[in-house]
Give the backbone structure.
Amino acid sequence: MMRTKELKRDPGEKQIERVRRICLGLPETMEKLSHGEPTFFVRKKVFAMFSNNHHNDGHIAVTLPAAIGIQAMLIESNPEKFYRPPYVGVRGWIGVELDRVSDEELRLHIHEAWRLIAPEKLHALLPPTRKKSQK
């Protein structure tokens, strides 16, 4: 007989695997625990932090740096998908609700965050962004 605990899977498990797969595919990226959550670094600088209902805030998300003005634009355009995270939100970082974005959209946000943080000379190592063909 299975216990209830065995049947329940942590909802963040699937989401961290999505984030991890994308982040660790980027040049010179490493993962470490920081503040109890998986955090991704490029050359010792953070570019993505996983949030698995951190401090019971209800978010299963990734927080990422965003270019100036992007945070407000994203939150205003889709507050169900984006939010201003505590601590780093004042510096323009954006929270992305993982169950509300496709793998492709998530990849685009993570790649942009990496570009913002990684040293310029590493940018050439980034795989080109796949763009949908225009007809």
